Amino acid sequence: MLELYHAGLTACSKKVRLCLREKEIDYVGRFVNINRFEQHRPEYLKLNPNGVVPTLVHDGEIIIESTVINEYLDDTFPDIPLRPKSPAERARMRVWAKISDEALAPNMVFAFTARGGMGDAAKQLDDATRADAIERFPLRDRRVIMTKIALGEGFNDDELAAAQQKAEDIVLKVERALDSGPYLAGSQYSLADINMIPFIDRYRQRILPDRLTPALYPRTCEWHERIMARPQVQDTFRPLPANETTG
Ligand SMILES: N[C@@H](CCC(=O)N[C@@H](CS)C(=O)NCC(=O)O)C(=O)O
Question: Which atom of ligand 1 is least distant from the CA of 13?
């Protein structure tokens, strides 16, 4: 049995949901409501001690980390391969795996402060319950961010600008790589594109709408639109009912 614990339309959930969709793998989805802090419940922490989604459970094997999960899926279900054949392209794909992991940080700053997100959810709790919810964040950096937001401090303009700059640095890497595209690792659609599309889509919609434009980043915008047009991506990114997403 294959189960995916995920939060619907959050970026890391989309990375793995898209990989499963591309590979046409059936699985049981287990929705974890991160706005209700279900990711920090003791039973979930037994699966993922970092208290984050996604987590894959395959016949009792527990696999964490979205980028690692996608490689595991490609190893275990080789029928529709999503890693390039050539070793050089495969190496480039792995560099994109690292960049995809880095792309989360600027996204977190905006995800935690987004209207209807975890920050808002924490503000609505009474003092004792909120303090307890914050204390349960297993990852120290998240606990620090959450404390700032829940205390009403949020991020100042310099911190928001720094997160935007980090995001734009990543866009610049995408733009350069696509010089020799058509895909991020080279000639083939691969896990590189799958791991990056949720972030570039989020950056374009919410984080860098005035910077990530066809005038400034023509190749990135063309790639974004081309990848988003894939039926598998459309299926994965389409809006979900409120009881199936927190993204
Ligand atoms: N490195 C992890 C990061 C996962 C992650 O941060 N997931 C977010 C949703 S995209 C989450 O679970 N947030 C809830 C929290 O931080 O408590 C991965 O790639 O799987």
Answer: 10
- The CATH number corresponding to 87-237 among 1.20.1050.10, 1.10.3210.10, 1.10.8.60, 3.40.640.10 equals 1.20.1050.10
Terminal Cα distance for the chain, rounded: 26
Q: How many residues can be counted in the chain? A: 247
Q: Report CA(105)–ligand 1 centroid distance (Å).
A: 10
What is the tens place of the pLDDT at every residue in 15-28?
999 999 999 999 99
pLDDT digits (tens, 9 = 90+) for 161-193: 999 999 999 999 999 999 998 999 999 999 999
Give the relative orientation of helices 191-202 and 157-177 as an angle to the nearest 10 degrees. 140
Distance separating alpha carbons of residues 42 and 40, to the nearest angstrom: 6
Q: Which CATH superfamily is domain 2-81 in?
A: Glutaredoxin (3.40.30.10)
